[in-house]
Amino acid sequence: NVELAAARAAGIPVLHRSQALAAAAQGRRRVTIAGANGKTTTASMLTVALRHVGVPASFALGGELATAGTNAELDGGPGDPFVIEADESDGSFVVYRPEVAVVTNVQPDHLDFFGDFERVKAAYLEFTRTIEPGGVLIACADDPGSDGLAAAAEAAGVQTLTYGRADHADVRLTDVMFDGLNSSATIVDIDGEERALRLGVPGLHNLLNATAAYLAGSTAGLGHEPDAILAGLTAFDGTRRRFERKGEVRGVVVIDDYAHNVGKVDAVISTARALADDRRGELIVVFQPHLYSRTRDFATGFARALRPADEVVLLDIYGAREDPVPGVTSELIAAPLREADRSVRVSPREEVPAGVASRARTGDVVLIVGAGDVTEVGPEVLTALGAS
Asked: Which of 40, 202, 291, 361 lies in disulfide reach of 62, CB 3.0 to 4.6 Å?
């Protein structure tokens, strides 16, 4: 990297991204959102809710916030909140020293760095030890990993608060309902009071994300009025590449999503399945596996997550930072799907738009999934639909 080489040659300090963010956040009320899945959306929801109630919240996200047109912005001054998506992939999320820390889930991922799930769990436990004295850990009780983390952190003296549909959650989510691309539920707060949660995005995972954002922004976290934070969450209209509606042609809706690990893929497929059923159509999924190591380690999990689709189209693996691994191809995911008698094919990238457009019918949902250049396929499918 020529910039790094020049900086080092000139004696200019070089910081890791997390160190630079931690420096930028000094003097502010730091809120970190961690977890295998849901970090970007939860952090985005919290940012939108805070800004909705007039709080100048800075943010640094892993995706573009639709209302801001950027993934990071410095706002306000000392004492104002700074919402940080705390990336666990290389263990660097231990540098922020948050006042409020959210963990959406703890699941095996980034094993190319950690090696095994036990080291992943150990990293999250270390993360909880960085919470400022008097701060709070907010963790999802529905996920065994984050639920166990909350218990361990509480035993170590960290103030914790759990949320979810589980009976033992401190704050429970009930009366879950979906209506097309909208969703709603009732939050039974820690004081027993019931509050309505309404979102303009679909899926149980988003209701859980919103509950985490609600707790981080309201009384238990930053201390803002609960109903005002809920009103702000209603205003949330999404994050780029998180179940992003790209358009609709001939009654076929095309949605793009960044999901690239098993938990994310499972959540987005479940949401899209419900939407397709609501439209009385079929679900066509175009999935591009991300990383050879992740495909090798989790191929059967990806196949299981993709099974609810009526048709699965697999692209070749997007290697990103990795070199090809002999024997590791998209066929590792296709094989168990075929054994389960599901419709699946591995297709060259250039054939996908026309192929999908030729088979899609009114009411169908076409879901584009992956962290690589598969995001370019959605607009091409819409174009092909218009030409067919």
From this structure: 40
